[in-house]
């Protein structure tokens, strides 16, 4: 169950890629956003490359404002729901982990615990839940709120939410189900543990109606960048996503979260850190750069302004693309993605770019490498060997081509260097990540055998 | 798209069957409750027999009281969550409809709309949602309530819930997605319709982030027996389950709901009625009766008292099995399943049975037939030809054997009589049921073509 010094790899599966113009540059003539065969192909491609995890990001709600910009691509506007999508993918794959996002701000803990426990059974131990608090007012409005609750309240709710879900997953002990046809005992009531939770946000009294998941507990992912987000990860997560774009920042993040983990009395190696990593592969560096430029040129001013405006939490629609962004329209602080907001503020204040230059250069965090397999593997080796992360969340600007090229060119290079597995050695996502299967909180320590 | 006078068939897929002792009598030595391969086999078996629908019942919560009885079987205590289970089954089947229960009392409309829209895409138009208001206090407690809200309030909430879900499913018009790579128009904002709902129970402002489902709207099922339940079915459902156990009652029910449908200004034939039907097949009538007796004898007094006590909403645990049930312990009215409650009260008052006789004879509604393929098909033909229903919800006391025998012996007999399809003629569940694909509420009537 121990990982032998290899890195972990996850694939962020956004329809036609992370880049807002990814879909305009695919070979496909038809929409793949809701096409289960297409997603099965992506997951199988990543599985053939022995990825640890296939990952679906999510926001529970479509934008209803600025449709001139948001109607210009599928991402987060037209997508299959993560738990149903991953359950279907469980039947087209054998080994790869299947992770998806669900928001603690807009789900009931009982329903969510069931969905991921069920996915873990259906996939034979490959489920992961990415715990997010959501960062969009438009999602909040779909659930009866006027806007998003404040950041601190969202994280307090998330913490309580995760506690409840974990307790529910432990309802049945591993050996509770007897299936004793002779006596009629289906399960042992002494190994069945209802909860009676009453907290600041939730009252949950009851028991989960599903046997303990194959992984004991599905893998918990966290991706918050703020202090509250890091604390939640350090206390409860098995896996955390980071999106720093320099080695130094990533290294500082790695050291920071591991120190936090230790402060919660956990072994720091039980929280795995995956760094967001956006590779563009080419036969040569020039080819890779050319691919990137082609994509950037497909970004219209409307979309460019909207992408920057969203993360800056400011309306840029009236501005001249060829002038610098005026400083007085920048809000005092962020309520959504602190990390992206600060990155933009920094670029605006220190680089004196025009708005057009800003949208052409700005990428939401993540290390970007344009180059050959060697160029890409060099950076991955530097980060991994230098202990800035335990592996990478591969974020392809374009799909499916991004995973095809990464699998065919970069993975073999990593394997040649001994940095990446040649094959899976276990069957569950916890096995791939080198994480132990958690004992039930109710399990009695085994008595030493007599004699 | 019009059904040619054939009946519809659905399979109620409770782990090892509807009978509380079904699991004790299977060939299997290991638990199949969370085994996706087992459920895939059941669904494929029903699909080979050309069933319209594979159906998963559900309650969001396990019992935590009377575990001495509830630990004696898997049903509702250990089960895969319906939408994830059905999404996985969508990948192991091609044609059969996939229906599951989800409660309007304990879900958010936005989350539920997404889950079933996603299932409809994943299954290429085979999804159905069974709208229930739940009838268990133990479920209510898992969602922060002290007990179940009153019946009328639950149904008022259900009505509003269904309205919201249907409106969300219509977010995108059928031709909203353009996927125009040249111009960058992914969808047409004029064909994208957010809702702004404010009602007695919910405030939902937003838009569903998924293209219109292949069926336009997934099939809506309703199974309420009360006046409120029938009204909800008549106003909103495509399919309704009935559980009367005599032809006369079923016929009265059929006429009643169709009259209600007409009062809502709908064509009565747009609501299909499936009668609950529990067949036990044998080479001879004696063999079938023997099978049934074997099962009944496996019911322990603890389980027998609990099954009756639950539906009677009374605690029978202290009673002598060999005395009649005292009339003074019967509550004045039911808050859970009115139908079952009344059936029991009738049996107690008019048949003067002992408690043991009561649990041995009592079945939750549904027409039961023990006999040969001819015996079983005779009753089905009588009900169907006599317009007491449009088809049957086949409720096997034991699985998988129940569906195997029904498929191998009863289905061919129905086909011989011209009562049942030889093969699917369409691809969606709406096709199988003979229900038109609903137009989007926003669709403009086509202009007559010029010239
Ligand atoms: C790789 C990665 C994936 C993420 N996926 C999601 C997602 O699916 N849904 C979401 O709402 N937020 C997602 N986030 C955002 C984070 O959960 C978090 O909200 C954000 O980084 C802001 O951090 P903070 O909440 O601690 O301020 C993701 C972040 C990263 C780095
Ligand atoms: C075939 C059939 C399947 C049903 N499935 C469910 C179910 O999965 N979950 C549930 O809570 N109730 C289920 N019910 C119960 C009904 O939804 C309803 O609550 C019950 O018949 C009582 O009717 P009333 O609510 O109108 O009083 C089912 C009923 C029938 C006949």
Describe this structure in words.
By secondary structure, chain A is an alpha/beta fold. Chain A is built from 15 helices and 13 strands. In chain A, the strands form three sheets. An eight-stranded parallel barrel of chain A has the order 1-2-3-4-9-10-11-13, surrounded by eight helices. The first copy, chain A, is globular, with a radius of gyration of 22 Å. The two termini of chain A are 30 Å apart. The site of one flavin mononucleotide (FMN) has 22 residues of chain B, from strand 4, helix 7 and helix 11.
- The main sheet of chain A orders its strands as 1-2-3-4-9-10-11-13
Oligomer status: homodimer
* Largest interface, chains and sizes: A-B, 82 and 82 residues
Largest sheet of chain A: 8 strands, parallel, barrel
Terminal-residue CA separation of chain A: 30 Å
Q: Tell me the radius of gyration of chain A.
A: 22 Å
**Overall 3D shape of chain A:** globular
CATH top level class name of the largest domain in chain A: Alpha Beta
How do the SSEs of chain A run, as a string of H and E?
A: EHEHHEHEHHEEEEEHEHEHHHHEHEHH
Structural class of chain A: alpha/beta
Total helical elements of chain A: 15
Query: What portion of residues of chain A belong to β-strands?
Result: 5-15%
Binding site for FMN (chains A, B): 58, 101, 151, 155, 226
Family (chains A, B): Belongs to the NtaA/SnaA/DszA monooxygenase family.
Keywords (chains A, B): Flavoprotein, FMN, Monooxygenase, Oxidoreductase
Pfam families (chains A, B): Bac_luciferase
């Amino acid at each position: 169950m121990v990982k032998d010094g290899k890195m972990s790899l996850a694939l962020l599966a956004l329809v036609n890629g992370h880049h807002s113009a990814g879909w305009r540059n695919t070979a496909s003539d038809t929409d793949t956003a809701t096409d289960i065969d297409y997603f099965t192909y992506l997951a199988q491609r990543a599985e053939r490359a022995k990825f640890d995890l296939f990952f679906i990001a999510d926001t529970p709600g479509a934008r209803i404002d600025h449709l001139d910009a948001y109607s210009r691509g599928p991402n987060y506007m037209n997508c299959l729901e993560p738990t149903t999508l991953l359950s279907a993918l469980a039947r087209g794959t054998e080994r790869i982990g299947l992770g998806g996002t669900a928001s603690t701000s807009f789900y009931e803990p009982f329903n969510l615990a069931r969905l991921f426990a069920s996915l873990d059974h259906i996939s034979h131990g490959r489920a992961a839940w990415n715990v997010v608090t959501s960062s969009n007012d438009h999602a909040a409005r779909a659930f009866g709120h006027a806007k998003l609750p404040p950041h601190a309240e969202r994280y307090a709710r998330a913490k309580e939410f995760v506690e409840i879900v974990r307790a529910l997953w432990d309802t049945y002990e591993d050996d509770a189900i007897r299936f004793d046809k002779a006596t009629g005992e289906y399960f042992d009531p002494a190994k069945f543990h209802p909860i009676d939770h009453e907290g600041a946000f939730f009252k949950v009294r009851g028991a989960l109606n599903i046997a303990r998941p194959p992984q004991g507990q599905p893998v918990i992912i966290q991706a918050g960048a703020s202090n509250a987000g890091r604390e939640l990860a350090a206390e409860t997560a098995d896996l955390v996503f980071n999106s720093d774009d320099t080695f130094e920042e990533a290294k500082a993040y790695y050291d920071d979260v591991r120190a936090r983990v230790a402060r919660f009395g956990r072994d720091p190696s039980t929280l795995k850190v995956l760094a967001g990593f956006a590779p563009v592969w080419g036969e040569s560096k020039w080819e890779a750069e050319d691919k990137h430029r082609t994509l950037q040129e497909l970004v219209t001013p409307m979309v460019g302004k909207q992408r920057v405006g969203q993360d800056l939490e400011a309306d840029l629609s009236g501005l001249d693309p060829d002038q610098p962004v005026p400083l007085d329209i920048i809000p005092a602080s962020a309520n959504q993605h602190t990390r992206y907001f600060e990155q933009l503020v920094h670029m605006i204040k220190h680089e004196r770019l025009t708005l057009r230059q800003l949208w052409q250069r700005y990428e939401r965090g993540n290390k970007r490498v344009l180059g050959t397999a060697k160029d890409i593997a060099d950076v991955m080796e530097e980060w991994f060997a230098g202990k800035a992360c335990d592996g990478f969340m591969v974020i392809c600007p374009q799909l499916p081509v991004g995973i095809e090229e990464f699998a065919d060119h970069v993975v073999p290079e990593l394997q040649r260097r001994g940095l990446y597995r040649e094959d899976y050695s276990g069957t569950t996502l916890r096995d791939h990540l080198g994480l132990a299967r958690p004992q039930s909180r109710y399990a009695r320590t085994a008595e030493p055998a007599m004699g």
